[in-house]
Write a structure and sequence with these properties.
Elements: H1 2-27, E1 43-49, H2 56-64, E2 73-79, H3 86-91, E3 98-102, H4 115-126, E4 131-136, E5 140-141, H5 145-156, E6 160-162, E7 165-167, H6 173-195, E8 206-209, H7 210-215, H8 231-240, E9 245-247, E10 255-257, H9 263-277, H10 284-307, H11 314-338, H12 346-365
Parallel strand pairs: 1-2, 1-4, 2-3, 6-9, 7-10
Antiparallel strand pairs: 4-8, 5-10, 6-8
Helix pairs in contact: 1-6, 1-11, 6-11, 6-12, 9-12, 10-11
Amino acid sequence: MGFIIIAILFAATYLFLQLFYLLHWLKTKSIVVPDSFIPSTTFSVVVIANNEENTIEECIQRILHQHYPIELFEVIVIDDRSTDGTVEKIKALPSPNLQFYHLHDFPELIHAPAFKKSAIELAVSRAKYDWIITTDADCNVYPDWLLTIAYAQSVTGSVFLAAPIRYASYNSLLEKMQGIEMMTFMMITAAGIRSRLHDMANGANMAFSKQAFIDVDGYNGNYNYASGDDMFLIEKMRAKFPDKISFVKSQSAVVETEAHQDWSSLLKQRVRWAGKNKGLKNPVINMIWLFIGFYHVMIFAMFGLALLHYISWLPFTILLSFKWIADAVMIYHASSFFKRSWLRDFVPLQVLYSVYILRLGWNLMLGKKGDWT
């Protein structure tokens, strides 16, 4: 009986959490740019590149060819210690709107191991315009990206905007798993921002006021983590400007990147993501991830105990059914927004994701290193 009660309590908590996120996602207003909108916001688009010779050219070209007045934006590319042909590819893209810098030329601004944060601070110090948008050199944007961000800022009055990320390809089961995870991450990001339960952002698609960045003293105090240019900044912005943080819920604001092709690179990235969360002042995110991890452990534990006839199958059934129902509802809404199919592979993806969560937790317990160390 005790195992059944524990299963019901955990399952109810999981269901409540997912429904909480779904409610705030649905209440997050969609951004639709009217035809009458005339943009006036000026942007400095920041791209930090580290060994991205295969993607940097398309990334910059897509930014330069936005449906946005050319006189209202510039592109600042910072080379972060590339050893391949990235620099040559950048220099072959002459444009009056393009600025290029080597991070190593500014040793006074480098705070190891926070090289990306240092590069962003360099870009901000060289930016001509009022608003900074960051993306990654392996990402691609849509033609109305800047226009949508400009409109979102004008209607929200925010000083920090988190915007959606989507994986470009969904071929293998591993890619599909990452795709669904990222889509639900975006729902959770929007819901967390709207509810103020917690704040999340992704440096591949975020925008902020240059003056606000200066007001929160940039990344000062966060240099001991290699990553976290997104999470630490939004946390600082929330503390300084509690009513001026928003999520841009719009298809045209989506940035696309490629999913990882193998387990090793995926787990290393996720270990890095989890590692930076330890430095956040708001403990809610870590508490939720701990709960999610323990929930998956319980599913496998109840399965094993039932298989060995120590307990009935009911606790396992409760945990699994509540999770799959809640996840199906979340994934349905995420897939509808991001226009991705999901139903056919739902069951194998659920099993694969549980294995992935356990492997990630095991790597964290063993102190494995992330991909920026």
